[in-house]
Task: inverse folding
């Protein structure tokens, strides 16, 4: 499903357990990231928390390569 105005895919909602399975992380890590506001989430009803898997994908970043090398060089000079 895509957002017709922006052309970007719509949200892919998943429970905490589903997000943990999808990402290979523990449910505890997912919940911690939500409480730290590192990972946006929505509450559905009194107990269910849902995470947009697109937001979880945004947290991934490559290891190595030019982008990381530039970030490391900048951190060392700061």
Result:
């Amino acid at each position: 499903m895509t957002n017709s105005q922006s052309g970007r895919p719509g949200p892919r909602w998943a429970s905490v357990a589903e997000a943990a399975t999808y990402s290979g992380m523990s449910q505890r890590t997912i919940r911690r990231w939500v409480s730290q506001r590192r990972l946006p989430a929505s509450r559905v009803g009194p107990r269910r928390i849902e995470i947009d898997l697109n937001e979880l994908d945004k947290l991934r970043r490559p290891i190595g390569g030019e982008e990381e090398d530039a970030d490391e060089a900048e951190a060392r000079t700061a």
User: Anything to note?
Assistant: Residues 13 and 38 are 17 Å apart (CA to CA). The first strand starts at residue 13 and ends at 15. The chain has one domain: 13-77.
